[in-house]
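Hi V.,

Quick status before I head out on leave. The structure for the redesign project is tokenized and pasted below; the design run finished overnight.
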């Protein structure tokens, strides 16, 4: 059963606004932002690096372990 997608940018825009602008957003950049945010929370909560990446990989099984690790340490690209 698919889970309802939530607004990963809720700290910046409302759910209604997100739904309106979603077709114009870069899905990969939003995914990477959500991954970085979750990784930071898991690490802040005391989880080890490898365990945090494994936890995130459960949510994104199509991504390789090293890809998730690169997303979490890379500086986000800003701009067009």
């Amino acid at each position: 059963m698919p889970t309802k997608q939530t607004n990963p940018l809720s700290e910046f825009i409302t759910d209604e606004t997100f739904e309106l602008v979603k077709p114009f957003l870069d899905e990969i950049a939003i995914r990477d932002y959500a991954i970085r945010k979750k990784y930071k929370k898991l690490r802040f909560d005391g989880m080890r690096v490898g365990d945090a990446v494994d936890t995130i990989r459960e949510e994104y099984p199509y991504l390789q372990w090293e890809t998730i690790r690169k997303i979490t340490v890379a500086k986000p690209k800003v701009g067009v």
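Above is the designed sequence. Residues 27 and 55 are 21 Å apart (CA to CA).

G. will cover questions while I'm gone.

Best,
W.
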